[in-house]
Amino acid sequence: MIDKDFDLTRRSFIDHVLKASAGAGMAAAAPWAAFAAGTEPLATDRVRLGVIGTGDRGRTLIRNIAKTRNCVVAALCDDYAPHLARARALVDPATPVFADHRAMLDAGGLDAVVVATPLHVHARHTLDAFDAGLHVWCEKAMARTIADCSLMVKRAQDSRKVLQIGHQRMFNPTYLNALRRVKAGEIGPLIQIRASWHRNNSWRRPVPADSNDRRINWRLYRESSAGLMTELATHQLQIASWFLDAAPTRVIGSGSLCFWKDGREVYDHVALVYEYSGGRKLVWTSLLNNARYGCEEQIQGSKGTIEPELGRIFKENPPGVRALRQMTQDIKDGQKRPVPIGGATWFPELPVTTPGESLGWGEFDETMLQFEAFGEAVRSGKPLPGLLHQAYLASVASLMGEQAMDSGRPVDWPSALVNV
Predict the structure, then answer these.
(1) DSSP H helical segments within 39-145, as ranges?
(2) What are the helix and strand counts (H, E) for the chain?
(3) Dihedral sign (CA 300, 306, 308, 310)
(4) What DSSP state is assigned to residue 321?
(5) Reduced to 3 states, what is the DSSP secondary structure of residue 383?
(6) C-alpha to C-alpha distance for 278 and 357, rounded to whole angstroms
(7) Cα angle vertex 341, ends 336, 346, to 5°?
(8) Sheet containing 281-287: which strands, arranged edge to edge?
C-alpha cells in the first residue's frame, strides 16, 4: 500500500483495513479488525446509544456515530448545561436530554451507553449502565485506579455485556499494515519502541463564569486524572503491548512539574522505561513545553524501524546510492583513481534522513469503524475478540507508570489482575 491508495470513502477505508489485517499472524494479533471491517451493517434497526458526557470529546464521538450505518444517538446526558446545548445541535431535535445519567438509564429505550466523562467517574457510569442491563463503550483510559479497571472488566464478564474501550488506532489501516509487516519479519526481532507525545501549551482551558476550574480542567488534578499518563500514554502503551505481544514486566520513571507552575497537581514532564520479556523496552516521554517531536512511535527491530504515526518504514541497510554503487563497481573493474579526503576522520552516527517507504497514510475514519464494530458486538451480545484485553493492559500500565514516578522506585506488573 502506498499513499495514493488511501482516500476517505467508507468502502475504500474498509478495504484497506481488510488488506492490512490479512497475513501471517494477523488473525491472532488483531482478531477484531477483519470482524469489524468484514461486517456490512444495516442502516435499519440501529443500535440506540445514550451518550454520557458531551464535552469536546463527547461531541467528537457523536459526530463519528452519525457516520455509522448501524448506530444512532438516542439520548444525551451531561450535568453541565452549555455542553449539553452544543451536543443537542448535533442530533435529532427530538432526542431526549438528561442532566443525570441515572435518569437517562431509568428512562429506558437504549441498547448501550457511550461514556465520555472525566476519568474518575468512568467506573461509576460503566457499572451503573451494566446494572441497567446495557452494554458500554467507554473512552480510554478505563478508570482512575487499577482496582476500578479490574472491576469494570469483571462486571462486564459477569453481566455478559460488551465493554469496549476507545483505542481507535487498533482500527487504523496504517497501524494494521505496520503490524502485518512486523509479523512478516521485515524489521527483524523487535528490540525497543521509542514513543513520545510532546506539546507546547499549558493544557489548561479557560473557566467560564458558570463553572469552576476542577470541572473544566479536571485533567490537571490528581483526584480526577493521572494527567499525561492516562490522557496520552495509554494510546502508545497499547501500541507497545500490541506490537511486542506482551504486557510490561515492570516500569521505572521520573515525573516533574517542570514548566507550568500554575497550581496543577499532575506532572507536565515525564520520562519512563517499561521493560518487557527478553529485555525489550518501551521508552516513553511526554512534555508540555516543546512540540518539536510531537506524537510519534519508533518501532525498532534489528533490520529496520517502523514509524506508524508518520506512515513510514525504514530499513537498516537501504539500497546504496547510485554513485556509490558505480564507484564500487569501478574499483572491482580496476578503474581506480584518487579520491580526495579532507576534514574529520570520524563522524557521529547521525539519524537516518532518507524518506523510507510509505506504509500508506491519510485521514481515516477509524473512530467511525470502531463504533460500527461496537454496534455489531451489541447486536450479537459478544465483544470483539482481543479489544478489551488490549485496553486493560494499556490502562493498567499507565497507572503503574504514575506509581513509579510518585514513588521513585520500580513498579512490577500486578499479579492480581482479571483474566480477559
Answers:
(1) 56-67, 81-88, 101-107, 122-131
(2) 15, 15
(3) positive
(4) P
(5) coil
(6) 29
(7) 125
(8) 357-358, 312-315, 304-307, 295-301, 190-198, 281-287, 269-275, 250-256, 411-412
Ramachandran region of residue 185, left (φ > 0), alpha (ψ -120 to 50) or beta?
A: left
How far is the C-alpha of 334 from the C-alpha of 313, rounded, in Å?
Answer: 37
Instruction: Give the containing element (helix H, strand E) for 50.
Output: strand 47-52
Q: What is the Rg, in whole angstroms, of the alpha carbon atoms belonging to the chain?
A: 24
138 CB-side CA count, 13 A: 32
Distance of alpha carbon 382 from the chain centroid: 22
- Cβ atoms 194, 283 nearer than 8 A: yes
Grid coordinates representing 78 are 451531561
Q: Which of 9-18, 165-174, 197-206 has the lowest mean pLDDT?
A: 9-18
Cell digits of residue 43: 442502516
Q: Is 354 exposed, middle or buried (0-12, 13-18, 19+ CB in 10 A)?
A: exposed
Render pLDDT for 229-274 as a digit per residue (tens, 0 to 9): 999 999 999 999 999 999 999 999 999 999 999 999 999 999 999 9
Q: Regarding beta strands 269-275 and 281-287, do their DSSP bridges make them parallel or antiparallel, or are they unpaired?
A: antiparallel
